[in-house]
Amino acid sequence: MSIPRATGVVVRTTEHAPANAKAGMNASSPTVVVLHDGNHPPAMTDVERLATVRYATEDTLAESLGGADVLFVWHFLSEAVSEAFSAADELRWIHVASAGVDRLLFDALRDSEVVVTNSRGIFDRPMAEYVLTTVLALAKDLHTSVRLQDHKRWQHRETERIEGKKALVVGTGPIGRAIATQLSAAGLSVVGAGRTSRAEDPDFGYVHASEALHEVVGEFDYVVLAAPLTESTRGMIDAEMLARFRPSARLINVGRGQLVVQEDLVEALVAGTIAGAALDVFDVEPLPEDSPLWEMDNVLVSPHMSGDTLGWTEELVALFTTNLAGYAADDRLRNVVDKHRGYVSGSESI
């Protein structure tokens, strides 16, 4: 990717710099604070050419924000921004290195003029491939084969076809659309669930309104959660909703763990209310060792990695760098989040 270069820029990078660190800088050069977890993001050379960069951890974030224009939330699991936000006296833009922004948004930020952008587009295809993989693994009982292989047991079984199975993708943003494309190509019949119902959608064919989810969820063999976490989606899959699933249905969650009431899901899996689940996200992460989900034969557990493929961190930095170059040139930012809805404006979701 070719990144525009800023000219005449003096670059200084520090772990945490005082608020007057911009003194002597080119007036057009922004100051960027990078919130990290102890590991700096890779491939930051272009960012450091475009701006003064201050690297900060959660402990040093507040003292680093004074006088900064931009905050790059590399440590996207952190909730430290809300505590340090009052120190951000010149902040204009926050970019988060994830698609979800639920951990970042808080009332003071929503009510401010600070623009929020996310990393939409990096994770779409990898997460769609993960979902297709889990559909195949569940249908072909691959997780059981691995367990049997560990014990050198030869146990013949019959498995299922996925061709002609019906899948509902909850969340019709870019990730949900990539999932629909992958599952459709594999032979499944796919529809979506989003904020409003509509026919003739280019990726889903038909989209059900999310408020009618309880009426239609029982029609599907696979229910895939790819929705952002908002007040309207939190706990959407609870005991009442799970009771409406087909007993042969599987739940796949690549959205957020809090979309599901985890205790209700465990009970449904034990009772056979649903046939199985593939879970990449959980209400508490890492998943505690005493969670019964670890021991369930009909559950696939992965550690929040469905979108993390080789080179993904470099892609995240490249996206931020492109946006930073636009910011420095007063161009329009990409992936601007509607801070009240919780996702990118113009991206239809649930």
Automatic annotation (TrEMBL):
InterPro entries with a match to the protein in the record: D-isomer_2_OHA_DH_cat_dom, D-isomer_DH_CS, D-isomer_DH_NAD-bd, NAD(P)-bd_dom_sf
Domain D-isomer specific 2-hydroxyacid dehydrogenase NAD-binding span(s) in chain numbering: 133-306
SUPFAM superfamilies from the UniProt entry: Formate/glycerate dehydrogenase catalytic domain-like, NAD(P)-binding Rossmann-fold domains
Alphabetized Gene3D superfamilies for the sequence: NAD(P)-binding Rossmann-like Domain
GO molecular function terms listed in the Swiss-Prot or TrEMBL record: NAD binding; oxidoreductase activity, acting on the CH-OH group of donors, NAD or NADP as acceptor
Keywords: NAD, Oxidoreductase
Protein family (similarity comment): Belongs to the D-isomer specific 2-hydroxyacid dehydrogenase family.
Protein name: Phosphoglycerate dehydrogenase-like enzyme
Organism: Halosaccharopolyspora lacisalsi
